[in-house]
Every structure is written in C-alpha cells, then in structure tokens.
Sequence to fold (298 residues):
Amino acid sequence: MNQPELIDRIKNGDPSVFNDIVEQTKKLVYNTALSIVQSEEDAEDITQDVFIEVYENLDGFRGASQLSTWIYRITVNKALDLEKKKKRQKNGGLLKQIFSIKPADEPVNFNHPGVLLDNKEKAATLFKALKKLPKNQRVAFTLHKIEGLSYQEISEIMETSLYAVESLMVRAKTGLKKLLENYYQSQV
Amino acid sequence: MNKTKLATLVEETLDSMNGAQRAEPAPYLLTRINAKMNREIPSAWERISLYLSRPGIAIVAVAFLIILNLVIYSFNNTTTDINLQNLQGAADEYSMNNSSSLFDLENIQP
Fold:
C-alpha cells in the first residue's frame, strides 16, 4: 500500500484501512517491541497498545512522515515506557523489599524466536549486553542491526539528526564490545 | 583466551542477529486489539477506590490517620493545661483560693 493511496483511504473514512495497516505492519511492531523489551508477552501487549494508539490517531495522520516511521516511533516509545514502568515497580516499594521472601530476580536469558539455531547462544549474550546500554544507544542499535533500518530512517524515528544517530551507533558498538569482552573473559 | 580469538567471538556475537527471521505475533491480533478497545473503562470512582485499596496506599493512609490522631490528642492536652493555667491565674487574681481575713464565716458573732 503506497502512502498517497493510504491517506486517501483514511480521508475517505475507509473502515478497512486500519485492518490493512495492522496486517502490513504487525511484524514490524512486534519485532521492534520484542527486541527492546525482550519478552514475548510484553511485546504482545505493546503491539496491541500501539495499534490502539494508531487507531485513535489515524484521522490526524496527514502523511508528514512515512506511516512506518510514525508506527516505529509509537512502538519505541511504548516499549521504553513499559520498561520504565517495570523498572519502577521492581525498584519501588520499601515494604515489598522488606517482606519479599523471594530473592531479587536475576535477568533471564532472552532467546529471540527468529534467530538461527547456531546463533542462539551468542544472540542471547548480545541481548543481555544490550540491556546494559543507555536507552538511546540501545534503540539505535536495535533499529539498525536487528530491524535493518538505515541511519536516515532511524534519525526520523528518533527525531534526531543523522550525525547524532551515527554517534549513538559508534558509542553503542564500543560499549557492546567492552561488555562482551568482559563477559567472555569472565567465562574462561 | 587470546586477543584474536576474543575479538572474533565478540564480532560473531555482534553479528549473531544477521539472517534472523522476523518473529510472528500470536494469531488473532485484530480480535485481541478490538477486545482491548472495547474493554469497559472504569469510572473515576472505581479508579479512585482501586488506587486506595492498594496495600501500600492503605498502609500509608492508616499511618497518616494514626499520626494525625496523636497530634490532635497531644495538642488537646496542651490546650487543657493552658486553660487550667488561665483558670488558676483568674482565681489567684480575684483571691478566690485565699481565705478571707475580713470575714470569718464560722464565727458569725460580731
């Protein structure tokens, strides 16, 4: 579906346009959310919430940016919001900490369902290291390396300059290399 | 582990998502989206009562009420003391507690 045709259908109030958008972009939304939150259950919830927001704001979409860029932006924001909420719930609550019988949760290895069998272990290590990066670097790296987007597309999604994205990618790669080196050296 | 081997391992890890297939969300996504959109939105009162019934909030509220009671109780005690002091002061000023030297109530004889 091309953009002008889509905008025409939205303007004409075509009820099936939302269903088509969901069908065409559901993998994009789900996979982006999955790479950021690293939980299939949370990614499902985010996917639903993203499309609800798309549905509620579809009338206001005038095509200033690509539809996919808009949807990517909503997805990234929702995923980061959920992460923030979870972190707050985990850290918060003095009473919860005092009366908690269970020990603090250890980060669980995340196995991306689409990864080749040979790479499963390495991909799990990569996702573990990704969790330790600052969120902007993590988002840029995820969108580029996992979603395969160009720096230009990432700059539009993150509403930043191309130079900033390049810088984020350099810092993300340097940070990841350091984390992975430390991890593998500690495994010997 | 030597440096070359370590560098290769790190590079392989960084490229481990290459060739990965896109994951599929669970089936009936549209149905679930519609169900979530049609879910009844709780009223303002329901949201308030849900918020207040959280254990953390309830405990804080009870603690606040206990502290408030203690403050009011101690404040009342202080004001009672002040009132007594005022009464005592007034009684002293009008010599109500002193036995009169002018009249002897028991001896009514002139």
Notes: The first helix of chain A runs from residue 3 to 11. Chain A has a mean pLDDT of 88.
